[in-house]
Amino acid sequence: MSTSTQIAPKQAPQQNQSLKPLLEVAPVEFAEKFSRTPFLIRHRLTDHPLFAIDRLLELAKSLPEGCLEYNAGQLPVNCDPSLTPLNGLSAEETIERIATCKSWMAIKYVENDPEYRDLLHRCLGEIAPHSEPIVPGMTQAQGFIFVTSPGSVTPYHIDPEHNFLLQIRGAKHIHLYDGNDRTLLDEVHLERFYSDEHRNLKLHDARIDDGWKFDLQPGMGLHFPVTYPHWVQNQDEVSVSFSITFRTPDLDRRRALYQINHQLRKRGWTPPPVGDHRLRDTLAYTLFRIRRKLLGTAKSDCSRSCNGM
What we know:
The chain is α+β, with helices and mostly antiparallel strands. The chain has two domains: about 25-250, Sandwich (Jelly Rolls); about 250-300, no CATH class. Helices cover about 30% and strands about 20% of the residues. Helix 5 (about 185-195) packs across helix 6 (about 250-265).
């Protein structure tokens, strides 16, 4: 089953001009902040039937097991993924009891369902006119739905995609940190992450109040720049959130360069940080692409799927 959808503005589904936009984006703010700093948008999805609990239960039953991730929700900000406790329930029971079972659940790659794929494409079709002048080549559209119990915590971590988190139901406190601050997120962390180690990181207590804090209410959306560390705490109600994500060619380059540096470091070298030497980065990425082509490795190996990271 394919879990990665190619989408670009000229290929995106044509928007019905009689339909009201699903998203409200401030063009000037988007141009100034996209992929640099977090910012809020608004959306009109709070009453959409695809986010009703019964429909989400139906969706979960229809997807492969690898598209469902769920565990106990009462977690610390710093959490070793190998020690994350399970909740003792099935995926279906987790959704049905989400108000009381103290759990966290992610329904991943929802674009495998045609109705959710259409909604994802419609949303990204509204993002593309703003993002293309900044980072052209929108591709690999993927959607994630988070269904979480009151008070649940999503531990401190990073993600590899351009991401807008749309809050559908309930509310969340979002703690988001500068991904360019190498005292928080150093080159070794990024090398390991892009070499398929787990997304969870450790946040020191002295830094927990740094960064941005957002109180995300229904109807609001938040832009997460790529690999900006964050952790999330639900407020006092069940939360449903829709994460609309995509990649661009520059992210394939970024991943490749960090993978190269990871291999060099394992061999005892101390590679320069990605971005410090443009010519070196260009040469390294060119050689990486040639090797990948000779070995027949698909470019899509940089995308996540229902089979894991």
